[in-house]
Structures are given as structure tokens and as C-alpha cells.
Design brief:
This is NADH-quinone oxidoreductase subunit G. In the C-terminal section; belongs to the prokaryotic molybdopterin-containing oxidoreductase family. With 687 residues, the chain is α/β, with parallel strands linked by helices. β2 and β3 (31-36) form a beta hairpin. Bound molecules: iron/sulfur cluster (SF4).
């Protein structure tokens, strides 16, 4: 019919989690009618979760920002784009000439495309002359990237989710995929329901823990203790893959001796687990011919986050579960394009393509690609990581911060510290689609665009680079985030061509070695998994013949108690841990502006019945939760999902401000915050 012929179908990628589901968007007269899932999508074969299919109406919500805002006489005031860029160019140039490029910093966004992330790091490095650029991987999977680089040489998933078809054993550590990565979670659940054995290592009785053959419900913060226990039993039961260890790895003997010196009773006591359960699980894992491991932020967001990653890599190498189909070590990336943001160089120590920014050769490489003359200045020091940016702002060393699509006030730990730091800046610039908690504090707010309004690519958790196609034009008054950065670069005097996904991708393919064979046209409908060779051949499985670093390297780390528990545990005896729910996404900026707000409208605190009784806390009553940093009030739900001494909540509602209680402890290697172990006290509210 005529009506049907005027409906366009646009294929794009979900902008919520790192599964990267393909979506088919029905559009008529520049309005989105519905979203479905294409059946031929390699990632999701016709499936989505309720976020991807239904939670998209935020894109034209009345709260959308549609005009640039500049703080004039203390108030955010609507201005023209020209005024905003002139104002910014003057301010940024003045800060750069007075204090140097390192007085400016940028934070990029996993919501934005690879091309937009690439542009932001290019502006910071090439135009402003600083390596002060970071992204939200800092607060989620930076320990994965670091730890896997140390063990294998590449900090990304070794296999594809499709490998679940070929596995016969699943090890799931610190992740709740049926809520946080629902399409992958459903695939794991189906596998398990059909009989594939499952180990779940998690302090919370998640949905998949209910189906697990072994649920090791450890105390939050003790992953390293339990992973070392598993290694101990695999070695003492003589279940290691000797030929793999001999031919493909190094430093095994020192690792083995250290593991064998551990005391299992002591570690079981530390983690609060039954050592026989760990032993049984470890033996089953080692005996499986094809074991796949998955992990999430329950591994990384700890003071020993990077070390726990290397401990998982040790188990994978001990049992030879890497380098072939149906095995491997697979981080469940939390955000749609957090993999891509790091790949594109939004990190202070590595530029686009993960080259060390302090090495002479790499500096020359980047200079030649960016058209910088050999004698021209270029940043040579590692820049600030996000927590260091806040510290530097508070100390007065950082003067300006450019944030593209991150609500750090709501999502970064120790909110009081974050707010104090941002307040001390001379210039805070925020690119956003809504007036987030961070945007409310900004000096300049630039209205960006949602994923439905832009072209580009996202890279999912299995290294799959997929095309994002605009279903509708940017909302009137808004620009794509890439064009905003381009316009800013031009206002600062650097000639940067307008934002077009295909030409940006062409530039990226020349700079990032593992994008060498990617072009806009050859990505097709289902994308390509990096590394992609010049001839366009992509890679489903990493480390097949040898590891990226040559031999895989064993690392031994002993369990160390978190400083948070050591310093505050006596006064604040409960451990709070957090995670996502199915209906909402992170700070809730998008999902709270959809019907999902009606389904789930607050964050609740799970408390074990024994603790509730001891503290006289009733089900569904208000409680006061307090830590060394601050306090909040929320509703308690009495639940057997957490053990005595452990509390759990989600973090989607700004009213709750969970980060008023979280602390400053970070992972030793990457400064990823320890969100998962917070020493708190609890009591009935108004008692
Ligand atoms: Fe797929 Fe994740 Fe989007 Fe759900 S949130 S549709 S699982 S990409």
C-alpha cells in the first residue's frame, strides 16, 4: 500500500550494552515508529532485550537539549553555536597559552561512535597538545584490558559469543548477564538448561546462579583468593594441559610453586566459601574439553581487579582453554562502544590502536599520520586517568575539562570529591543530550545527538565493528557529537573536515593497525571482527597459533584485603556491592525517559533476613545507609540473594546518589574504582 511504501527500514546498532544487537528501525516522515531485530543479524538473530526494542523514545523526549548553553552571570543561558565556539576557543586558547596543554583534559563516551571517539582524542592530542584523554573503560574494564595485555598481549575478548554453540562448560565470574547483557545472558541460560555445566563465582545469587551446578558465593573482594584456590586444585589434581603449558606459555614453574605454597583453609576462610565446593568446581572445569569463561565488573571494579584478570588468564592457560573454538576468556563489555573508545585511543597512556604514547617510534608514527612536522611539539608524557583528572582539578593543576556524553557526577565514585573537583575548574564543557547532573555544573553545554541520529561504527564486546546508520536527522538545533568536535577543532585553528563516517573510518584504518582492512563499504550488515587484515579478512578467534605477545605469561598474585575494608571495616561492618537491573541502564539518563521508568522506578537495597532481624529492619521500609564518605536513604528488601554481612543495590536513579557512599580505593594498576566493595553501616531511617 502507499502507506507501507513510505515507511523506511534502517538497520543500526543498540546503544545500550556491549552485546551490540542489530536493530531494524521503522521510520516514517522522520519519526520512528518501532524497533525490531533483524533475523539475519550475526549477533542477535532476531532477538533483543526490552531495552533495545522498547527503551528508545528518549531520543525525542521533551527534555532534550536543543540549544548550546553558556554560563553567563552565573546562569546557563541559551546562545548560538557560533557564540559557543568563539567563547570556547578564547577560553581554551587562553588556558593553553597560560598553563600549557596539560591544563586541559577530555573524557570521551562509550555512547558515541568510534569515529567520534577518535576525533576527541585527536583534538586533545593534536590540537591541544596533551595526552589527558580517558574514557569510561577507566571505571569498568580497564583492568581487563591491562590484565589481558600482560597475560596474552591483547586486552580484548579472545573468542566470539557464537562460540557458545561449541562449548561444553561455562565459567561465569562477577557478571549478571541475564540483567546486564540480556541477549548473551539468554544464550548462556539456554545452554545451561540443555545441560552444559556452569560455575558462577558471585557474591549475589543472580538468576544464572540459581541454575549453576556450582555457585561459589564468595565475600565481595576475594576473587583472587578463590581463583588461586581453583588453580591449586587443578595443579594438585594433575589436571593441567601439560603440552599447552610447555609449548605456549612462560613462567609456569614459579607460578606453580607460589600456588602450591598457599593454604586452602586460610583462603576458604577469607572468602567465606566451602573449599570442597571450590575443589569440585575446579576439577570439573579442568576436565572439560571446551570451557568458555566470561567475566564482568564483579572482577574488575576491585583494588585487585587487574590481578584477578591475570588469575583468570592463568586458569585459562593452565587448562589450555584458549586459541580454538568454544573456549577462551571473554569479558562482557558493559557499554555499547566502550571497546571502541579504548581502541580509538581515548586512554592517557595509549593512542589510537594501543601504541604506547611515550615511545619515540610511536610518537613519530602518530606525528606523521596527523601531519605534524618532526620538529613540532607533541605530548610525550602519559596523561591523567579520570580519577587523576579530579585530583588535579582539586589541586588547581587542571583548568579545563571537556566531557563528551558522560555523567561523572552521578556515575563516578565519591560524589562529594567529584563535585568539589569540577567546581574548581575554570572551564567545564559537556556534550550531552539531556541536562545531566554533570551538565548542570558545566560552563558550556553543547547539545549532541543520540545513536538514532548519526552514522558511524560501534565495536561490541567480541571486537565486532558494526555500522551505525542514522534513522532520523539530528534533532533540530543539535549536532552529531562528531561534528561538534570538528567545529571546535576548526574554531581552535585546526583544519578538520566535516564529520562523515566513511571518511573518518578511512583515516582510522590508516592509523589503527588492526583496522587496516576496514572500510565503510566492506563492513556489510554484520560487521567485521578486528584485527582485520588489509585484504578484509577478519578474526573470530585470537591467539590460535601464538599469543599476541608470543608466549602466554603466568602471573601469581596473593590475595590482599581491600584498603576499604582494612580502614573502615570495623566502623562500617557491612559490604555494599552494586550492579545493573534488566530494565535500566547505568545512570538511567536514557531509560528513565522511557516506559521502563514505570516498570522499575527506584533502586532498592537487598539485605539478608538475619541482618534485617538484627538491625530491626522491616521489608519495604526506608533505611539509612552510611559510609566514611556520606549517607543516603533507600528502601530495603529482605532477600536470601545476599549472604549475611553483604548488601546489594542498583544505581540507576539520581535521587539515590549511591556514589555519595562509594570510596576512593582503586585498582592498583589502572585506577579503576573499587565500586564493588564499599564498607557501610545500616540502620532503619528516622530511628
Ligand atoms: Fe542487545 Fe544489550 Fe541492547 Fe539488550 S541492551 S538489545 S542485549 S545490545
Amino acid at each position: 500500500s502507499t502507506e507501507q511504501s513510505s515507511i523506511d527500514k534502517v538497520r543500526t546498532i543498540c546503544s545500550y550494552c556491549g552485546v551490540g544487537c542489530n536493530l531494524e528501525v521503522s521510520v516514517k516522515d522522520n519519526k520512528i515508529l518501532s524497533i525490531e531485530a533483524p533475523k539475519d543479524a550475526a549477533v542477535n538473530s532476531g532477538h533483543t532485550c526490552l531495552k533495545g526494542r522498547y527503551a528508545w523514545r528518549f531520543y525525542n523526549h521533551p527534555d532534550r537539549l536543543t540549544k548550546p548553553l553558556v554560563r553567563l552571570n552565573g546562569a546557563l543561558t541559551e546562545v548560538s553555536w557560533d557564540f559557543a565556539f568563539d567563547y570556547l576557543a578564547k577560553k581554551m586558547n587562553a588556558i593553553k597559552s597560560e598553563h600549557g596543554g596539560d591544563a586541559l583534559a577530555g573524557i570521551s563516551s562509550a555512547r558515541c561512535t568510534n569515529e567520534e571517539n577518535y576525533l576527541l582524542q585527536k583534538m586533545m592530542r593534536v590540537v591541544l597538545g596533551t595526552n589527558n584523554i580517558d574514557c569510561c573503560a577507566r571505571v569498568c574494564h580497564s583492568p581487563t584490558a591491562y590484565g589481558m595485555q600482560q597475560s596474552f598481549g591483547t586486552g580484548a575478548a579472545t573468542n566470539s559469543i557464537d562460540d557458545l554453540k561449541e562449548t561444553n562448560f561455562i565459567l561465569l565470574i562477577g557478571a549478571n548477564p541475564t540483567a546486564a547483557h540480556p541477549v548473551t545472558g539468554a544464550k548462556i541460560k539456554q545452554k545451561v538448561l540443555k545441560g552444559t555445566p556452569l560455575i558462577v563465582l558471585d557474591p549475589v545469587k543472580t538468576e544464572l546462579a540459581r541454575y549453576a551446578n556450582w555457585h561459589i558465593q564468595l565475600r565481595p573482594g576475594t576473587n583472587v583468593a578463590v581463583l588461586n584456590m581453583m588453580a591449586y586444585y587443578i595443579i594438585t589434581e594433575q589436571l593441567i594441559d601439560q603440552s599447552f603449558v610447555d609449548n605456549r606459555t612462560e613462567e609456569y614453574l614459579a607460578y606453580r610453586d607460589a600456588i602450591l605454597s598457599l593454604n586452602m583453609d586460610e583462603l576458604a576462610n577469607i572468602a567465606g566459601v566451602d573449599k570442597n565446593l571450590v575443589k569440585e568446581a575446579a576439577i570439573a572445569y579442568a576436565k572439560a574439553s571446551h570451557a568458555m569463561s566470561f567475566h564482568g565488573l564483579g572482577v574488575t571494579e576491585h583494588s585487585q581487579g587487574s590481578r584477578a584478570i591475570m588469575c583468570i588468564a592463568d586458569l585459562v592457560m593452565l587448562t589450555g582453554n584458549i586459541g580454538r573454538a568454544g573456549v577462551g576468556m571473554n569479558p562482557l563489555r558493559g557499554q555499547n562502544n566502550v571497546q571502541g573508545a579504548a581502541d580509538m585511543g581515548c586512554q592517557p597512556h595509549q593512542g589510537a590502536g594501543y601504541l604506547d604514547v611515550t615511545k619515540e617510534d610511536n610518537i613519530e608514527y602518530y606525528k606523521s599520520h596527523y601531519g605534524i612536522a618532526p620538529n613540532e611539539l607533541w605530548p610525550t608524557d602519559v596523561g591523567y586517568k579520570i580519577p587523576e583528572m579530579f585530583n588535579a582539578a582539586l589541586a588547581g593543576d587542571l583548568k579545563a575539562l571537556w566531557i563528551m556524553g558522560e555523567d561523572v557526577v552521578q556515575t563516578d565514585p565519591n560524589q562529594h570529591h567529584v563535585v568539589a573537583s569540577l567546581s574548581n575548574l575554570d572551564l567545564l564543557v559537556v556534550q550531552e543530550i539531556f541536562l545531566s547532573e554533570t551538565a548542570k555544573m558545566a560552563d558550556v553545554v553543547l547539545p549532541g545527538s543520540s545513536f538514532l541520529e548519526k552514522n558511524g561504527t560501534f565495536t561490541n564486546g567480541e571486537r565486532r565493528v558494526q555500522k551505525v546508520n542514522a534513522a532520523v536527522p539530528p534533532k533540530e538545533g543539535c549536532k552529531t557529537d562528531g561534528q561538534i568536535v570538528v567545529d571546535m577543532m576548526n574554531a581552535l585553528g585546526y583544519q578538520q573536515a566535516d564529520y562523515h563516517a566513511d571518511s573518518m573510518l578511512e583515516e582510522i584504518s590508516q592509523v589503527v593497525p588492526f583496522f587496516a582492512g576496514i572500510t565503510w563499504d566492506n563492513l556489510g550488515e554484520n560487521g567485521l571482527q578486528w584485527p582485520v587484515a588489509k585484504d578484509g579478512t577478519d578474526t573470530q578467534i585470537l591467539h590460535t597459533e601464538q599469543f599476541t605477545r608470543g608466549l602466554g605469561k603466568f602471573h601469581f598474585y596473593e590475595f590482599e584485603e581491600s584498603k576499604e575494608v582494612e580502614e573502615h571495616g570495623a566502623q562500617y561492618p557491612f559490604i555494599l556491592t552494586t550492579s545493573r537491573n534488566l530494565e535500566h541502564y547505568n545512570a538511567g539518563t536514557m531509560t528513565r525517559r522511557t516506559a521502563n521508568e514505570i516498570i522499575v522506578s527506584e533502586d532498592v537495597l537487598l539485605i539478608n533476613p538475619l541482618d534485617a532481624k538484627a538491625k530491626a529492619i522491616k521489608d519495604n521500609s526506608k533505611v539509612r545507609l552510611y559510609s566514611a564518605r556520606g549517607e543516603i536513604e533507600l528502601t530495603a528488601e529482605i532477600s536470601e540473594k545476599v549472604k549475611s554481612g553483604v548488601l546489594f543495590t542498583t544505581f540507576h536513579f539520581p535521587e539515590l546518589m549511591i556514589n555519595r557512599v562509594t570510596g576512593d580505593v582503586t585498582d592498583k594498576h589502572t585506577k579503576c574504582p573499587e565500586y564493588k566493595v564499599v564498607s557501610v553501616g545500616i540502620e532503619p531511617a528516622c530511628s
